[in-house]
Each structure stands twice: as structure tokens, then as C-alpha cells.
Amino acid sequence: MSSDDATALRGQVVTFIDDPFVVSPTDAMQFWSDGVVVMRSGIIEAVGAADDVLPAWPGIQVERFADDLILPGFADCHVHYPQLGVIASYGARLFHWLNTYTFPEELKFSDPQYASTIAERFLDELARNGTTSACVYATVHTTSVSALFEAAEARGIRIATGKMMMDRNAPPGLTDTVQSSYDESIALARMWHGRGRLTYAVSPRFAPTSTAEQLEAAGAVWDAYPDALLQTHMSEQTDELKTVADLFPNARDYLDVYASAGLVRPGANFGHAIHLTDRERDALRDAGAGVSHCPTSNLFLGSGLFDLAGLRTDTDTVPVGLGTDVGGGTSFSMLATMQDAYKIAQLRGISLHPICAFYLATVGSAAVMCMTDKVGSLEPGREADLIVLDPNATPVLAERCGRAETISDVLFALMILGDDRVVRRTVSAGKTLYARDTTA
Fold first, then answer.
1. How many CB atoms lie within 10 A of CB 420?
2. Which residues contact 233 (CB under 8 A, 6 or more apart)?
3. In this predicted structure, what is the pLDDT of residue 440?
4. Which end of the chain is more exposed for a tag (fewer CB within 10 A), N or C?
5. Inter-CA distances, 159 with 131, 301, 369, 398, Å
6. Bridge pairing between strands 61-72 and 386-389
7. What's this model's pTM, rounded to 2 decimal places?
8. What is the model's pLDDT at position 168?
């Protein structure tokens, strides 16, 4: 094959070929101790054992990472870029945290310059932590959406975002109307959706801040752009459930509020979904809607323990991905997010296998965002989004990985002991977004 314009990364290559919640974890993962990923024009051309792949690419430029792991880039399916500045703010429960920190910060995003500054910092953090795709909340302001899309387009990172829709129970300056939220969402989708690697995400914040009429308007926006996404929050805390029941007395449960507006279908991304009824689980499964598991946020705000086993037990399962949920979440690192997902699973009486955890942070999140044909795994034809992780990034990690007997041992050590220091390289659409050894 012609090696013109093609490049390759060589190291220990890990990718996913099946669902480790359905088949055994080791059968779901493909591993080459000396593997290679060939990229050209932002697309993966070949992946496999170096000795098998490289002879077909004579003269190709190969960058070698001796002991490092090459994996699919992380996909964060639930994160708030306007909350970067309030991460790690001392707070009580969800509503107190929103009113004390989140809403005052989000008011600042009516300023295009402020929004652009935070958008750049946010994308810097994603890249530094190995995240190459994300489903992101903006604010109610159109300026906040355009700022993030513009910054993401310039970098070539895959981002889904959209204007927050809130027509009640929020401060002046953060509320819109049914008509304005529809009009502005349509205008933004027309401008940005499907442009390069950008996807519009219809974004009613959650039922407490939207009337039934606004949720119906969100459904109408989605009908106009059916290949867009829908992101919102659901069943994060028990006092939230009571608020929703009071605001929507005719709904059978929280999910029914969204279903009544036509918002429960493939491409719907429900954040948290901790306190679900059996009916809601069945309805999510039947509809093909997805759920974002946000463990660091759930622990930080005392929201509850996500029931992973209740959603990922059969071959007919609910799509589940991992979200950092910054700023309620406490880290941009998907490794730290996996660590807390493991701890929550332990408290739930199950052990989250490291292959399952890495799957959730890659293919799982991509599935929630309906993007598994583009990202989440290292396969020919997929976009060249990948990360290089250094198992010797810290002395303790090097000690632990030096004793590892299997690649699963290494992955587990990375998710328990690793953080942003582990990420040596982040590649998005074949271009380096971050290089640890050359970045101050």
C-alpha cells in the first residue's frame, strides 16, 4: 500500500471487539503486545501486530512507544464546560450547589469573550486527560454554544453540545421562553450540526427547569434534526424526584415526563439515572435510549450509587457510558472516573472488571452518543482518535505495573493509580492535540 501521508504509532495496542458485559471481558478485548495503528487523513487505515501490518506499508513513518499502551481516545458523555471554574466548590446537595455556584457562573457566559476563554481552557483539559470526544452542556446563551463549537472546530475534536433550555426555576438571565428556546436551538443547529466533527445536542437542563411546553419544543427541535442528540438530567437525587412529581403530577414517573414530550428514543442521553424504577429501566431498554454514569459527581454531591448491574445484565441492555460531569464531578480524568465507578460498583456488591471500565469510557460512551461507527475503538475506517498511556508515569504506578502478569492487571493499575500524568499523547482525527513530553 502507498505510505504517502500515512503515519503509524507502535506500542502495546488495546482495543475492543465486543461487549464485555455480554461476553467474557478477555474475549471482548483485542491486545497486541507489539502492535501498530496506521493513520492517514484522519482515519485509521490498519491496526494489528506490527510484524503483520508494517510490511504492507513500506517506508511509512513509525513513532515507537516501547512500553506504552495505545488505546481508543476516551469519550466523555456528560460534562459541563461552563462549570470548569466552580469545580471543587464546597456545597451541600444538588439544588444548593446549583444555586450557590453553578447559576452565578453560568450567567457570565452571555459575554462572548468569557465564553471563548473558558471553552479553550476546557478543551485543553480534555486533551490533557486523553478525551477526544465529548457530549457537553453549554449555558442558555447562544454565545456559549458558538464559543465551544468554534474552538472545537479549530482543533478538530469531536464535540456534541447545544443551548441549555430553561424557562422556569432559574435566575433572571438564565431563563428563556418556549419560543425563544426553540428558535435559538434551531438557528444553532442549522449553523453547526454536522459541520466537520460537530454534532448538535438538544439540551433541556432537566424537568425542574423546563415546563411541559418547553420539553415539547425540545422534541420539535429534535424532530427537525433527527440525527442530532438529546441530553438532559434525570433521577440524580431523591429530593429532585419529589420536585418533578410535584411539577408533573400526571406523569407516571420521571422518565414519563420526557417520554410525553417525545424525548425517549435512540440518541437520548440521560445523565445520572440513579434512582430508577423497574418501569423506567424497561422503558429505556425498549426505546434504545442511553444513560451517562457520573460516579465522581454522584459521590461528591451524595446523590446515590448508580445501579450498573441493573442496566447492563442481559444482551438486551441499556447503553451506558461514563461522564466526568465537571464541575459537580471532581476530575477531568476518565481514569479517576473509572476508579470511582469501580468503588460504587463495589458498594453495590459487584466487581467492575477493568476491561469493562475502559469499555464504558470508550465504546460505551460512544454508543450513548450514537457514534460507535466513528469513534470508541481502533478499527480500519474509524476516525483516528487514540491515546498513548504511560504505565511508568509515577513511581508507584511503575512499581505496580512492573509486577503485572496480564494486560488486565495493567489496565486496573492505570484506572486506580492513574491521572492526567499517565497521558503521554492525545491524537484526534490523526492530529496530536496534546503531547506530555513537549507540553509545559
1. 17
2. 205, 206, 270, 271, 272
3. 42
4. C
5. 11, 26, 10, 33
6. antiparallel
7. 0.96
8. 95
